[in-house]
Amino acid sequence: MKFLLVFDFDHTIIDENSDTWIVKCAPERKLPNGLRNSYQPGHWTEYMGRVFVYLGDNGVKEDEMKRTMTTIPFTAGMIDLLGFIGKNKELFDCIIVSDSNTVFIDWILKAADFHKVFDEVFTNPAAFSSTGYLTVQHFHAHHCAKCPKNLCKRKVLKEFLDKQLERGVSYTQIIYIGDGGNDLCPVMFLKKNDIAMPRQGYTLEKKISQLAQSLSPVQCSVLVWSSAIDIMSYLKLLIKE
Question: By CB atoms within 10 Å of each CB, which of 106, 169, 211, 240 scores lowest?
Fold first, then answer.
């Protein structure tokens, strides 16, 4: 009996968007209008690339970025939840699928000593160049019309499950925990026995309820959470059964 927990990162594990939080490092903690208005829908990664160039041009160094990123608060109850999962790792495999980047997630998880809770992190690869600029790339290429160009979370989840099956690992239940519009695609891939946990008041919850109203509901069960304690209560019931 093994369960797979799939977490989004921004506004799910942490209570902010890591990509917009980094703007605190910019001069006067804001971006010039031209840069801010240069975002095009579906091309967030390219936009963040330009933000990182701007920060680099203004002399923002890696250690300052790291200091800033590790001050992001975790979502209410999340520290307790991750502690609980860490103590029950034999029952839970745990992955992150996020549109953030490897550098930010690595810094935040390691600073709080939660990196061992997660078996794998799927996110946009990032690194510091020889000149000290942070660079970010697309996670993969895909053909899904519903998702941003750089990341289809359904594709990531499906490929992970296929790889696990090859290794002889299958899951009693998949539990998907997220908040955003780009979490809907993987949620629609979940089966009847699985469970989607959208964060209360966020885009994913709204999109799932819109589907239910248009009589094309998702196959899986849906359990809304506002604090990660809600998620922990569910997991405790699950392992008691």
Answer: 240
pLDDT at 214: 83
**What residues contact residue 153 under an 8 Å CB cut-off, 6+ apart?**
97, 147, 182, 183, 185, 186
Convert the pLDDT of each residue in 169-205 to its tens digit. Answer: 999 999 999 999 999 999 999 999 999 999 999 999 9
Task: Name the active-site residue from 8, 93, 183, 194.
Answer: 8
Strands (E), 63-178: 92-101, 120-124, 126-128, 134-136, 173-178
Query: What residues contact 10, with CB distance under 8 A and at least 6 apart?
Result: 16, 17, 18, 19, 98, 99, 100, 179, 180
- DSSP-derived letter for residue 225 is B
Is residue 10 part of the annotated active site? The answer reads yes
Q: How confident is the model at residue 167 (pLDDT cuts 50, 70, 90)?
A: very high
Q: Is 19 marked as binding a ligand? A: yes
- For the chain, the structural domain boundaries read 2-15+74-127+146-239
2-15+74-127+146-239 CATH: 3.40.50.1000
10 marked as binding residue: yes
119 labelled as ligand-binding? no
- What is each CA distance from 29 to 55, 66, 104, 228, in whole angstroms? 11, 16, 18, 30
Question: Phi/psi at 131 (nearest 5 deg)?
Answer: -90, 5
106 as an active site residue: the answer is no
Q: Which of 10, 93, 183, 194 is catalytic?
A: 10
With 0.90 as the threshold, say if the pTM is over it. yes
Compute the radius of gyration of the chain from its Cα atoms.
18
